[in-house]
Design brief:
Helix content: 40-55%
Number of helices: 3
Shape: globular
Strand content: 25-35%
Order of helices and strands: EEHEHEH
Largest sheet: 4 strands, mixed
Strand order of the largest sheet: 1-2-3-4
Radius of gyration: 12 Å
Amino acid sequence: MMLRITMQYTQVTSFVIEGELVGPWVKELEACWESVMAAEPTRAMLVNLAAVTFIDYEGRQLLTRMRRLGVRLVSAGLLMNAIVDEIEAEAQREK
């Protein structure tokens, strides 16, 4: 089980995620996100999930929280698109 997080800084801070967003890797993404939020709270951010193969419950919870706080989610493929659609709906309900 591996996860790679690549951060790209342009006009938007992008977190490019590859692999499975599960277990300890959820905390790793959360730490990366929180460090950017602390340094630049108004910066636009997005999470690219195109290369993610699986997201567990904690990963979904983190992505939902990130989405509620304005982070854009980008996905590809039927499974990830469906998960992102559910997260978008959940984030809208909770606002």
